[in-house]
Amino acid sequence: MKVCLETYGCTLNQADSDMMKGVLISAGHSIVGSARDADVVVLNTCTVKGKTENKIISRIEGLGRKGKRIVVAGCLSINRKRVRNACPGAVLVHPGAVAMAAEAVEDAAEGRVSEYAEPAAGNRKEGLPRIFTKPILRIPIQEGCVGNCHFCQTKLARPGLMSYSLKWIRSWVEEGVAKGAKEMQLTGMDSGAYGLDNGSNLVELLKEVGRIEGDFRVRMGMINPGHAKRMLPGLIDAFRDRRFYKFFHLPVQTGSEKVRGEMNRAHTVADFREVVRGVRGEFPGASIATDIIVGYPTESEEDFQETVELVEKVKPDIVNISKFASRRGTYASRLKEIPTQEVKRRSTLLSQVAKRVAAEKNRGYGGRVLDVLVTEEGKRAGNGKPDGGNLERGTGSWKGRADNYKQVCIMGKAELGQRMKVRVESSNYGSLFGKAI
Fold first, then answer.
1. Which residues of 210-239 are buried (b: 16+ CB within 10 A; e: fewer)?
2. Band of pLDDT at residue 261, cut at 50, 70 and 90
3. For residues 5 and 28, what is the distance between their CA atoms, to the nearest angstrom?
4. Dmax (CA) of the chain
5. DSSP designation for 411
6. Which residues fall within 8 angstroms of residue 28, CB to CB, at 6 or more apart?
7. CATH classification (class only), 136-363
8. Strand 407-411 to strand 432-436: parallel, antiparallel, or no bridges (unpaired)?
9. Which residues contact 418 (CB under 8 A, 6 or more apart)?
10. What would the DSSP string read from start to end of 304-368?
């Protein structure tokens, strides 16, 4: 049977899709790249933002109108009523049940309306087949979290903390090395919570990965600031391994301690500042990414200005900005929302500040020669500069990552997984642009 799998959302979702593809191929099905060519379409979904959910629902409705058989997997499966309204015949697969992907596809093909929830005890994702697209292997290290943020619906979809064993994670990395993977993305809903349920911890895991021989890079996923603070010395020590990208994703969500408390975040803004200082004290060129929600219902103008000031002072390399949107089933959904236009105004202003800060930092790379891992083939048009241009016939553009995970757009001959020297010629707020030397 021909199956098309579309993935939305985070790296953890992408890792789940890699496993579902492995399960489907092992069951004798084939993966196709277009829904048009598929017998069944699997949508691995995300529910973290209302805008994303609406986009996915629209996609489900569109596929349904075309008569496609549909499986809805991932976090949106918890909103079963809305999914069923969009497509009464959809088969649902909850995040913990990816091992049942083949059965779900077969149900959809036969017109059976079914739902696969969390698997029975012991039937976890460890040991499932998986595929990966060179040169990147996505490795889930845990699911769920130990927090209870008032705005988060993902917590409802992946409610309990479940850490994968050190043995399995090590085996996945070793398998990736053997198959030629050059970038290992260790991912989780909150990677900092790793091991709180099985007697281990993230530092122990990173040290274990560091013992594996091979020429590869490791990109660590999101770590909430509270977890990063409690393990900071050990975390920094583990990141001294040259193969670890000096990249830290630390979601602060707001610059206001008042709003942070009202969000029920398990850290303080001061914790975030302390972790950033510690990281930059050891790795001055480290990239800092953070997430911020603008327009939380209790956010005043003064609170918002504190967030702006935080970005201006800390100067993160990446700021993922989300306009607050009420999510069903969360505490924050009971609160009176700030008018949409005001939220939009604040979001636009903060975005301008964040882009200015990032662009200023990236300009400092002009003329530098960076060691870059090529991870993606770029467009066949453009000259690698922000304003575009025309390429001579036969030349190409590529994307890669520097040692601090800065995205580098490269002009010249290259191959996926290749390490190369690149001289930076220009930049914008999101990328560096240069030529291979």
1. beeeeebbbbbbbbbbbbbbebbeebbebb
2. very high
3. 15
4. 60
5. E
6. 1
7. alpha beta
8. parallel
9. 373, 374
10. HHHHHHHHHHH--SEEEEEE----TTSGGGGSPPPPHHHHHHHHHHHHHHHHHHHHHHHHTTTT-
Cα distance between residue 120 and residue 357, in whole Å: 49
Amino acid at 393: R
d(CA 366, CA 256): 34
Is the predicted pLDDT of residue 421 greater than 50, yes or no? yes
CATH of 2-116, one of 2.40.160.20, 3.40.50.12160, 3.40.50.720, 3.40.50.2300: 3.40.50.12160
Class of domain 369-436: mainly beta
The domains of the chain are located at 2-116, 136-363, 369-436
Output the six-digit token pair for 418: 């290749």
Angle formed by the axes of helices 301-314 and 269-282, nearest 10°: 10
In the block, tokens 């400092």 appear at 364
Q: In 189-302, which ranges are E strands?
A: 217-220, 247-249, 287-294
Alpha carbon distance 296, 313 (integer Å): 22
Q: How are beta strands 115-116 and 91-93 bridged, if at all?
A: parallel
> Do 295 and 342 meet the contact criterion of CB atoms below 8 Å apart?
yes
State CA 104 to chain mean position distance.
25
Q: Of 164, 245, 175, 160, give the one whose Cα is nearest residue 204.
A: 164
| pLDDT tens, residue by residue, 122-171 | 447 888 998 888 899 999 999 889 999 999 988 888 888 999 999 999 99
Find out whether 374 and 398 touch, Cβ atoms under 8 Å: yes
DSSP letter, residue 33:
S
CB-CB contact of 92 with 72 (8 Å)? yes
Q: How many residues does the chain have?
A: 437
Q: Is 240 helix (H, G, I), strand (E, B) or coil?
A: coil
Residues 181 and 250: their CA atoms lie apart, in Å, by 26
Q: What is the CA radius of gyration of the chain?
A: 22
Q: What is the pLDDT of residues 268-277, one digit of tens each?
A: 999 999 999 9
Tokens of 159: 């409610």
pTM of the predicted structure, to 2 decimals: 0.90
Q: Rounded to whole angstroms, how far apart are CA atoms 405 and 10? A: 17
Per-residue model confidence (pLDDT) at position 188: 93
